[in-house]
Amino acid sequence: MINIFKKYILKYFNNKKYLDLKSSQKIEESKRIFKNNFEKTINKIHTVIKEKKKLNFLHSGNLGDLIYCLPVIKELSKTHKCNLFIKTNEIMPVEYFKHPAKGFYIDDRMLNLFLPLMKEQKYFNEVDKYSGQEIDVDFNLFRFLPVNICFNSPRWYFQITGVQVDLSIPYMEVKDHEIIKNKIVIHRTFRHRNQFINYKFLRNYDDIIFIGTKDEYDDLKKDIPNLEFCECINFLEMARIIKSSKFFIGNQSIAYPMAEALKVPRLLEAEPLFPVVQPVGNNAFDFYYQPHFEKFVEILSKK
């Protein structure tokens, strides 16, 4: 009660001390939460990675978040047999407009479209739907740790496992697409959009295709009349189209993580309010503002 009274006195009579006290209390609270709820888990993961030769990983999506855990698994696969199990139908605590999994991080339909891409990665011993397997490393932990997660998404899993990876090196492999090659490939979802930019100038470019949902395509075609639609049979085909592209443009949804993992020339429509994705490596740019967007498209179109 005395501490609460002290806070109110400081708030109205010494704002600087009030803010200092509030910051200090927030830090102490995060330390308490970590100590009580997560320290044993982090220490156990550290020990398990050190002592076991086979590791079972769990993730519940979103799909982009699943791709961002791959650098750590690829690195660990050099010394361990690595299995990834994906749990479906976990309810998202936030609502995304026209999210394809309809309120879940990932549903069974999305998983069936996604598994062919994961099974293509040779560093996995096994990838499958979670059905009660014993788990060594639960990657969903990143959602609950008492830290701000507004840093580059692959590094969430660095902090869980203690494994650090050179993110400029590709961590996904697929074959080139047999037919669709050398296109400007775009994927833009209704969520994670940047409010400062538009795509209208791209009507001046040729050979532009869209990979995503029909609703997303119809929305963007209003700005780019010459935009063509490609309906992918699954996410493996989507990745192969991205691999074969002249360059890729997208916001931080499922397709941009593929482009990042493949290290193709790429442009990220960065989201100012939740900047958890950053390009790493050559021929990779992010943009907040229109003149920079147009400049980077011109640079990549000339390569």
Using brief descriptors, characterize the structure shown.
about 300 residues, alpha/beta, Rossmann fold, six-stranded parallel β-sheet, four-stranded parallel β-sheet, 10 strands, about 15% strand
Give me the secondary-structure topology:
Elements: H1 2-13, H2 15-37, H3 39-51, E1 54-59, H4 63-68, H5 70-76, E2 81-86, H6 108-119, E3 126-129, E4 137-138, H7 154-161, E5 184-187, E6 208-211, H8 214-221, E7 228-230, H9 235-243, E8 247-251, H10 255-262, E9 266-269, E10 284-287, H11 290-301
Parallel strand pairs: 1-2, 1-4, 2-3, 5-6, 5-8, 6-7, 8-9, 9-10
Rg result: 22 Å
Strand order of the largest sheet: 7-6-5-8-9-10
Mean pLDDT: 93
> In total, how many beta strands?
10
Q: Figure out the total of helices.
A: 11
* Straight-line N-to-C gap: 66 Å
Shape: globular
Strand content: 5-15%
How many discrete structural domains? 3
- SSE sequence, one letter per element: HHHEHHEHEEHEEHEHEHEEH
Biggest pleated sheet: 6 strands, parallel
Structural class assignment: alpha/beta
The percentage helix is 25-40%
Low-confidence stretches: none
